Automatic annotation (TrEMBL):
Stretches the record annotates as Disordered: 21-101, 114-133
Cross-referenced InterPro entries: HAT, HAT_PRP39_C, PRP1_N, Syf1-like, TPR-like_helical_dom_sf
UniProt entry tagged with the keyword Repeat: yes
Pfam families: HAT_PRP39_C (PF23241), PRP1_N (PF06424), TPR_16 (PF13432)
Subcellular location(s) of the protein: Nucleus
Subunit comment: Associated with the spliceosome.
Domain PRP1 splicing factor N-terminal intervals: 12-170
GO CC annotations, alphabetized: catalytic step 2 spliceosome; U4/U6 x U5 tri-snRNP complex
Keywords assigned: mRNA processing, mRNA splicing, Nucleus, Repeat
Gene3D superfamilies hit by this protein: Tetratricopeptide repeat domain
Protein name according to UniProt: PRP1 splicing factor N-terminal domain-containing protein
Taxon lineage: Eukaryota, Fungi, Dikarya, Ascomycota, Pezizomycotina
Length: 929
């Protein structure tokens, strides 16, 4: 027995109301005289709780709104569950101190958690808002920088802004404007009465009726024209001489621009519409009247009348312009031009204009052009020089009109004495003088114009012409020091341009001297000078200035003698745009500067061999052996030389030495391939076995071993060799392909399929294995299976040109090839295999020009892709000329391609070894299907 009292005998809890959880406030018994009472409302409950809390000296319970809701929580009331807010918790009759304390604790916890989440939420919302505004900027943000830039716009630029044009609803607005501008007038009663009496309505109204009852349309039109004229004149007066703005509209006339427009119209032989001519005439006449001293206005009006065919009127207008604007040069020039049909009048006009403007060079030049004889031209030119002795243009005209060389030199002497700051006159004077005297002239010019770089360049070119090429470098060094002292040094890019100009004019030594002295100007030692100079040489080469590029690279190798990149660039330039001796000389210097560079030794030996110097090539290889002992690439190159020379015993000796001094799997493979080409299959097999003992993981040795057994018709041993290779080198796709093809030849298609599946497991996403699996099914006439494998393959390797080419040419209908090719090119942007496929598609459609274009793209993109050359040459055999086929053959020999399925199948066949690129190409063409 516990001390706990019976439940029914326990007192009721504080504020207990029976049935309150079910919505009632009491029960109805026999003693009750009425129904059950309604419970207190929420307001009454709040009032009661607040009163009781005040009696206890406590704060009102927070569950009934004593605490103010925050703005963030206002929206959350919409999402409250109504089921949790009614019934037991709808009133506070059973609300006690513990509940109030719990509410306060939960409220504090909620506020604290909400405060912590608010920081994160606000940071996240701010980040999302910034990201959204960055991706979707407002219009004012897009043009914020332009708005800031408007602060620096001048008043002239503001005035030059064009009017805003709005084409939205243009036709509708134009129609509304016409309707608004249409004037209607009330017809007088007398007219209506007269028409009613006559039984008809008159549609014509007399214009000479002046009794006030009739409308005078003629006077209205005259008044309108007068008002328009007044507005035109006032608008022209606001901006005299330059433009005419009409009532705020966008109509403006620039006399100079209008002259240009007229010139173009005359040159094209077109006639302007009459309405345009009349409109322009009104504007230009207004401009001339409002500003009688506006010379360009007279010229524009004269040109307008000449364009309209009124030459006499044009002459009158320009004559008036000469009277009103005697100091305007353009007016006198126009007057002389338009009167050239009468030379006498033109001369009179020119003389009058020159009297008004004796310093106007253009008028003197126009007067000189009017002269018909050489003596007359000289006479006028001398008169012009009397008034303008500093005019270089007049001196040049006089000198050009002089034929005797002695007189020309005297005139140059006088001109340079008069105009000492004209470097053009000094340089021309030096060119027409004797070499000894030219040096004195250039020295005098240098003292007169110490900031002129052109005089130094001319001095350098003079020494080159005299054969003193060793002085050119010294002259340019002095030039650089002098120009730096005078702060007149050109930029490095400008010096390169001057060097290219000198090269174009034949002064190659001067061009080299300029480059040598200035190519490093503005570049510090810590800058990327080497890369900068390499780029400069490429740019000059692209512009066809090979001497300038050679000078740049020659200077670069002097500064960077240990850089193989610069030496290779110089050797490539000499190979393509130089002589063979220069190339060999460059490579000799290169290997002396970089004796440990394998690539330079190989290039030197190769170029020496191709130059027809086998003895020297062998000497180069011997020198390279001393510098790089044990280098397998040098040994393989020496073997290639000996094989090309049919010196097989010497090649074997080299390979023997290499196997003893620098044994590698590649050396053993090279030796086995040589014996295979010579027909010594057993010896080749022994060499392969020896190599596999040391390098069991060399997949190439396994492949050669299997091919040797295949050549010996030992298919079982060949299959075993390939199988061992796949286990020893599981990451070599070629071994799986060779094994599968051998099994397919034996009729074991299922085994071949299994082999390829195993290879795909060990080499996932390998395009070669996937393509071979497709071809296996296609050769077995399982087209549906091939298409399924191809679909999965393109999912794994969507950027494989090999797979796309196989799908387009063998798994698609003829009508679907072009859409698939377009899809493939979008997936794989630059792939020579796809380019060849597209070319073959156009070839099949007899669109030969497009096929030729795509074949060219393929070989330009990758000249090492042999199949591109094969298909291109096959195309030319049907549709090409003999010259084009010969050109392709020469390019193939130069490119020496090494990749491509068809190409490798022929090039690596022992039957075609040492037959040359031309023969390999022709044999491969016969196998291309």
């Amino acid at each position: 027995m516990t001390g706990r009292r019976d439940f029914l005998n326990m007192p009721a809890p504080e504020n207990y109301v029976a049935g309150l959880g079910r919505g009632a406030t009491g029960f109805t018994t026999r003693s009750d005289l009425g129904p059950a009472r309604e419970g207190p409302s929420e307001e009454q409950m709040k009032e009661m709780l607040a009163k009781r809390a005040a009696q206890l000296g406590q704060a009102a319970p927070s569950a009934y709104g004593a605490v103010e809701k925050k703005e963030e929580d206002e929206e959350e009331e919409r999402f409250q569950d109504p089921d949790n807010e009614v019934g037991l918790f709808s009133s506070g009759m059973n609300y006690d101190k513990e509940d109030d304390e719990a509410d306060r604790i939960y409220q504090d916890v909620d506020e604290k958690m909400d405060k912590r989440r608010r920081v994160r939420r606000e940071a996240r919302e701010k980040k999302e808002r910034d990201e959204y505004e960055k991706n979707n900027p407002k219009i004012q943000l897009q043009f914020a920088d332009l708005k800031r830039a408007l602060g620096g716009v001048s008043e002239e630029e503001w005035a030059a802004l064009p009017e805003v044009g709005d084409m939205t609803g243009k036709a509708k607005r134009a129609r509304e404007t016409r309707m608004n501008n249409a004037r209607s007038y009330a017809v007088p009663d007398s007219v209506i009465n007269a028409a009613a009496q006559q039984g008809q309505l008159e549609t014509s109204i007399s214009a000479d009726s002046g009794d006030g009852t009739m409308t005078n349309f003629a006077s209205i039109g005259a008044a309108q024209k007068s008002a328009l004229q007044v507005r035109l004149d006032s608008a022209a007066a606001s901006t005299p001489g330059t433009q005419t703005n009409v009532s705020g509209t966008s109509t403006s006339v620039d006399p100079r621009g209008y002259i240009t427009a007229l010139d173009k119209s005359q040159a094209l032989g077109t006639e302007a519409p009459v309405e345009d001519i009349n409109r322009a005439r009104v504007l230009l006449e207004s401009a001339v009247k409002t500003n009688v001293n506006n010379g360009p206005g007279y010229v524009a009006l004269c040109r307008l009348e000449e364009l309209a065919g009124k030459v006499h009127t044009a002459k009158k207008i320009i004559q008036k312009g000469c009277e009103m604007c005697p100091r305007s040069i353009v007016v006198w020039e126009e007057a002389i031009r338009i009167n050239r049909d009468n030379v006498h009048n033109a001369k009179i006009i020119a003389a009058t204009g020159i009297k008004q403007n004796p310093k106007a060079i253009k008028l003197w030049m126009a007067a000189i052009d009017l002269e018909q004889t050489n003596a007359g031209r000289k006479k006028v030119t001398r008169q012009a020089l009397d008034h303008n002795p500093q005019s270089v243009e007049l001196w040049k005209v006089l000198i050009n009109d002089t034929e005797e060389i002695e007189n020309v030199r005297m005139l140059f002497a006088k001109a340079t004495e008069t105009v000492k700051l004209s470097e053009e006159l000094w340089i021309s004077y030096a060119r027409v003088s004797e070499p000894e005297h030219a040096q004195q002239i250039l020295n005098a010019a240098r003292k007169a114009i110490p900031t002129s770089w052109a005089i130094w360049v001319q001095a350098c070119r003079l020494q080159e012409q005299l054969g003193k090429e060793d002085l050119c470098d010294r002259i340019m060094e002095r030039a650089v020091k002098a120009l730096i002292k005078e702060n007149a040094m050109l930029k490095r890019e400008e010096w390169i341009t001057q060097a290219e100009i000198c090269e174009e004019e034949g002064a190659t030594v001067t061009a080299g001297s300029i480059i040598k002295a200035t190519i490093g100007w503005g570049l510090d030692e810590d800058d990327e000078r080497r890369d900068t100079w390499l780029q400069d040489s490429k740019d000059s080469t692209a512009r066809g200035r090979y001497e300038t590029a050679r000078a740049i690279l020659s200077h670069a190798v002097m500064v960077f003698p240990l850089s193989t990149t610069v030496w290779h660039a110089l050797a490539e330039l000499e190979k393509r745009h130089g002589t063979n001796d220069a190339l060999l000389n460059t490579l000799e210097r290169a290997v002396n500067s970089c004796p440990n560079s394998e690539s330079l030794w190989l290039l030197y030996a190769r170029e020496m061999w191709q130059a027809g110097k086998p003895t020297e090539a062998r000497n180069v290889i011997a020198r390279s052996f001393r510098q790089l002992p044990g280098n397998e690439n040098l040994y393989t190159r020496a073997v290639d030389f000996e094989v090309d020379a049919n010196e097989f015993e010497q090649a074997r000796r080299f390979l023997q030495i290499a196997r003893e001094s620098a044994p590698t799997d590649r050396i053993f493979m090279k030796a086995a391939v040589l014996e295979r080409q010579l027909g010594e299959l057993d010896t080749a097999l022994d060499l392969v076995n020896q190599g596999l003992q040391t390098w069991p993981g060399s997949w190439k040795l396994h492949a050669i071993k299997g091919q040797l057994y295949d050549s010996m018709s030992k298919l079982k041993e060949a299959q075993e060799a390939f199988a061992v290779g796949t286990r020893a080198a599981p990451k070599a796709p070629v071994l799986y392909i060779l094994l599968a093809r051998l099994q397919e030849r034996q009729g074991a298609v299922v085994k071949a399929r299994s082999t390829l599946d195993r290879g795909r497991q060990n080499n996932p996403k390998n395009a070669e294995l996937l393509c071979e699996a497709v071809r296996l099914e296609r050769r077995a006439n399982n087209i549906n299976a091939a298409q399924k494998i191809m679909a999965a393959a393109l999912q794994e390797c969507p950027h494989s040109g090999l797979l796309w080419a196989e799908k387009i040419m063998h798994l698609e209908g003829r009508t679907q090839r072009k859409p698939r090719a377009l899809e493939a090119i979008k997936k794989v942007e630059n792939d020579p295999q796809l380019f060849v496929v597209v070319a073959r598609i156009f070839w099949a459609e007899r669109r030969l020009e497009k096929a030729h274009t795509w074949f060219t793209k393929a070989i330009v993109l990758d000249s090492d892709y042999g199949d591109g050359w094969i298909w291109y040459y096959k195309f030319l055999m049907q549709h090409g000329s003999e010259e084009k086929k010969a050109e392709v053959l020469s390019k193939v020999i130069m490119a020496e391609p090494k990749h491509g399925e068809i190409w490798q199948s022929v090039a690596k066949d022992p039957k075609y070894a040492r037959t040359g690129m031309e023969n390999i190409l022709k044999v491969a063409v016969t196998k291309a299907e």
